[in-house]
């Protein structure tokens, strides 16, 4: 799931090097390997044009914002890195006005509110789509064809994915669902992970199991797909529509059962979640919330603890259901204090008080 900014920067620069040298983009393996090594040694030696440098700066900003800032505690250091990333993005946007990733990320940093950011994404989406269409229309050789088949499409897919994710946060669940459908129609294998925003929207729209299973069936290609960087590994990836093994689907189903006061079924889904993510009790207990990634959803391995942590953070709108109502325990508290979760906590964490979450009674069987 997700596009790695550094890997994408490398792919773009290597493709341009192939073009300059007139090398075959498929068969000249030795040249590709030498370029990959050059990138690892000093990527700047492959940067030749403003367009090259623009995306290179965007990748650097993405590394700072999505892979460093979320894990820092020192506020002064966070502000320093964010300011540095903003400078990189400003330069990237000035070097290449068609760098929609840089422009989008810059607005995400500077927007006065989430609603303002969503409106920007909606207003400019037709321009991003038109830019992609123009790039495809201008295809003239094998290098353009390689670019258009994959890399050229990614900024628009990220634009749609950002719109869906931010629409969920803004409470615009129908918009999130419609945007996710649009994105999945363009890229059914869903490397950008927009299916998860669609699933959260379904959960917030109080979709029942039948609707959730129908969504998973309709987008089976996305739930079955194993990205190239993971091919060859022995993994089971969400293949059965009615027996999901990704945290977003399970949490959506669990929240529906909890909302219906069917605590037995909710507990069954919690048990399934803990069977998929065997070391996930602490993530469910503490429910850490991380800032939204700006370039794209972070790359995490399916079924890993990192994936669960990411999903729990993104599912905050679902977990917060029931908060502040005196006669209804919050879903977040029910999950965090459930006996299945407490019983699976490592011994050193079992007695650690959880951060306060507004809500009601502890969870049970």
Describe the structure.
This protein has about 375 residues and is mainly alpha-helical. It is built from 20 helices and no strands. Helix 9 runs antiparallel to helix 10 and helix 10 (about 195-205) runs parallel beside helix 13. The protein is globular and about 65 Å long. The chain starts with a helix and ends in a 15-residue tail after the last helix.
What's the end-to-end separation, in Å? 33 Å
The fraction of residues in strands falls at under 5%
Radius of gyration: 22 Å
Question: Which regions have little confidence, pLDDT < 50, spanning 5+ residues?
Answer: 229-238, 357-363
DSSP summary: helix tally: 20
- Helical content (DSSP H or I, runs of 4+): 55-70%
Mean pLDDT: 91
Largest sheet features: none
Helix- and strand-based class? mainly alpha
């Amino acid at each position: 799931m997700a596009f790695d900014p550094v890997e994408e920067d490398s792919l773009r620069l290597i493709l341009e090097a192939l073009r300059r040298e007139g090398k075959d983009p498929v068969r000249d393996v030795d040249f590709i390997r030498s370029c990959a090594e050059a990138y690892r040694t000093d990527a700047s030696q492959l940067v030749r044009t403003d367009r090259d440098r623009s995306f290179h700066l965007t990748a650097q900003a993405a590394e700072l914002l999505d892979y460093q800032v979320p894990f820092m505690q020192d506020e002064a250091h966070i502000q320093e890195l964010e300011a540095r990333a903003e400078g990189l993005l400003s330069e990237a946007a000035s070097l290449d006005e068609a760098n929609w990733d840089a422009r989008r990320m810059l607005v995400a940093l500077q927007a006065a509110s989430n609603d303002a950011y969503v409106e920007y994404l909606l207003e400019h989406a037709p321009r991003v789509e038109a830019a992609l269409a123009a790039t495809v229309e201008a295809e003239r050789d094998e290098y353009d064809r390689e670019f258009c088949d994959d890399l050229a499409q990614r900024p628009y897919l990220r634009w749609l994915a950002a719109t869906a994710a931010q629409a969920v946060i803004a409470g615009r669940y129908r918009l999130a669902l419609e945007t996710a459908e649009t994105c999945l129609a363009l890229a059914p294998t869903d490397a950008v992970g927009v299916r998860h925003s669609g699933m959260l929207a379904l959960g917030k729209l109080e979709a029942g199991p039948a609707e959730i299973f129908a969504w998973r069936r309709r987008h089976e290609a996305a739930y079955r797909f194993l990205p190239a960087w993971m091919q060859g590994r022995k993994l089971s990836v969400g293949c059965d529509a009615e027996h999901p093994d990704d945290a977003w689907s399970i949490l959506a189903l669990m929240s529906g059962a909890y909302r219906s006061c069917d605590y037995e079924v909710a507990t069954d889904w919690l048990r399934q979640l803990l069977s998929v993510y065997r070391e996930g009790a602490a993530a469910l207990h503490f429910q850490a919330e991380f800032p939204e990634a700006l370039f794209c959803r972070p790359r995490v391995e399916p079924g890993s603890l990192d994936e669960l942590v990411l999903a729990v953070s993104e599912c905050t709108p679902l977990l917060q259901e029931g908060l502040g109502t005196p006669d209804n325990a919050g879903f977040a508290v029910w999950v965090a204090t459930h006996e299945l979760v407490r019983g699976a906590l490592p011994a050193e964490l079992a007695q650690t008080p959880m951060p306060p979450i507004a809500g009601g009674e502890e969870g049970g069987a």
